[in-house]
Write a structure and sequence with these properties.
By secondary structure, the protein is of the alpha+beta class. Helix content is 36%, strand content 30%. The strands form 2 sheets. Strands 2-3-1-4-5 form a 5-stranded antiparallel beta sheet, with helices on one face. Strands 6-7-8-10-9 form a 5-stranded mixed β-barrel. A hairpin with a 2-residue loop joins strand 2 (50-58) and strand 3 (61-68). Helix 3 packs antiparallel against helix 4. The longest helix is centred in the first third of the chain and has 21 residues, at 24-44.
C-alpha cells in the first residue's frame, strides 16, 4: 500500500461487450449496497468517513468515491479491508457460537486500538491490519447480507462479466493487486436463505396468558422476559395431557420449557424474530406447586449427557 493524501474506492464493472454504459437502476442498487457496507464497517471500528462521488470513467464502467475523514491512514486501511471482504469469499456460516462472542468483541477492541496507532505503521503492518479487519467484517451479518444483495443484483444483469472493488490513490493507481470476481463466482456470495439457526432457551419461563384448550393450529400467548409473545405449542405430550388430565390454568400459571426462537435476516441484515415454539415443557409452575413432566425429565437427562460429552472436548 502507498501513503496517499486522498483515499479512494473504485468499483470496476467489466462488461461482456465493448460498451461503457450501465443500467441506471442496477448501478444505483449496487452503489447502495457498497455504501451500506462502508458505513457499517466504519461504524464497527469507530472510523470517521464521508464518501464523495467522482465522475465515472470508462474501462467497462468505473465508479469512484473519494473518502474524507479524520485520519487518512485509518481510511486507507479501512478501504483496503472493504475491498478484500467484498471480493474474497470467506467460508463462514453466519452463526457464532455463544462462547466465542466475547472473544470476537475483544479482538475487535484490539483492532480498534491498533488502528489508533496506524499513523506510524509500515505498509506491511497496514496491510496486515487491513486483512485482520476484513476477517472481522466477514462475520458481520449486516455486511454478509449487503454483500449478498450486491451480487444478487449483478447476477440479474448479464452484461457484467466480472467486478472488482479496490482502494486506489489520487492518481487512480491500485494500492494493492486488483482482485476480480467473475460472474461464475457471484453465487458464492449470495445467501441461499435468510433464515438463521434457531436460537434456543433451555430454561425459558413463560407465564401463560392464553392457553389453547381445543384442537387446532392455534397459538398460545404468554409473557417471556417481560414481553408478551405468541408461540406454537409443539409438545404434543403436554397438549394431550391437558385434555386427558384436565389441567386447569390459573392466573400466574407458568411453564418452564425449551423455547425455540425462529429468526431471519431482513433486506438490510437486521435480525428479525419470525416466531416462537415450545417443543418441550419441562415443568408446570402453578403457584407454589411444581409439576414435572415425563418428557421434561427425559429432555433434561439427555441434555446433561450431551453437555457432559462436550465438556470432555473443551
Amino acid at each position: 500500500m502507498e501513503v496517499n493524501s486522498h483515499n479512494k474506492l473504485e468499483l470496476h464493472y467489466y462488461f461482456s461487450d465493448q460498451s461503457h454504459d450501465i443500467d441506471a437502476s442496477i448501478r444505483n442498487e449496487c452503489e447502495s449496497e457498497i455504501l451500506a457496507i462502508v458505513n457499517e464497517a466504519a461504524s464497527i471500528f469507530d472510523i470517521s468517513i464521508k464518501l464523495l462521488t467522482e465522475p465515472p470513467i470508462e474501462g467497462g464502467f468505473r465508479d469512484i468515491w473519494k473518502a474524507i475523514g479524520d485520519n487518512s491512514n485509518q481510511l486507507q486501511v479501512l478501504l483496503v479491508a472493504i475491498g478484500v471482504v467484498t471480493t474474497v469469499y470467506f467460508n463462514y456460516t453466519p452463526e457464532v457460537d455463544e462462547r466465542k462472542k466475547t472473544l470476537e468483541e475483544l479482538q475487535i477492541q484490539e483492532l480498534k486500538h491498533r488502528l489508533k496507532g496506524v499513523n506510524g505503521a509500515t505498509a506491511e503492518e497496514k496491510f496486515e491490519i487491513a486483512n485482520a479487519v476484513a476477517i472481522k467484517l466477514s462475520k458481520n451479518l449486516k455486511i454478509i447480507k449487503r454483500k449478498s444483495n450486491f451480487y444478487s443484483h449483478l447476477s440479474h444483469y448479464p452484461k457484467v462479466s466480472s467486478i472488482s472493488l479496490n482502494a486506489i490513490n489520487e492518481q487512480t493507481v491500485m494500492t494493492i493487486k486488483e482482485t476480480q470476481v467473475s460472474r461464475q463466482a457471484f453465487y458464492k456470495f449470495i445467501l441461499s436463505t435468510n433464515k438463521l439457526k434457531v436460537m434456543e432457551d433451555h430454561t425459558a419461563e413463560i407465564e401463560i396468558i392464553s392457553p389453547v384448550l381445543k384442537d387446532g393450529n392455534y397459538k398460545w400467548k404468554g409473557v417471556y422476559k417481560e414481553q408478551v409473545i405468541s408461540f406454537n405449542m409443539t409438545d404434543n405430550k403436554f397438549r394431550d395431557s391437558i385434555f386427558i388430565d384436565g389441567f386447569n390454568f390459573h392466573a400466574g400459571t407458568s411453564i418452564k420449557c425449551l423455547l425455540q426462537v425462529h429468526r431471519e435476516l431482513d433486506e438490510v441484515g437486521e435480525i428479525k424474530i419470525k416466531g416462537y415454539s415450545v417443543p418441550t415443557v419441562i415443568e408446570i409452575l402453578d403457584g407454589s406447586t411444581v409439576h414435572k413432566t415425563k418428557q421434561g425429565k427425559a429432555y433434561l437427562h439427555a441434555k446433561a449427557m450431551i453437555d457432559g460429552q462436550e465438556d470432555l472436548f473443551v
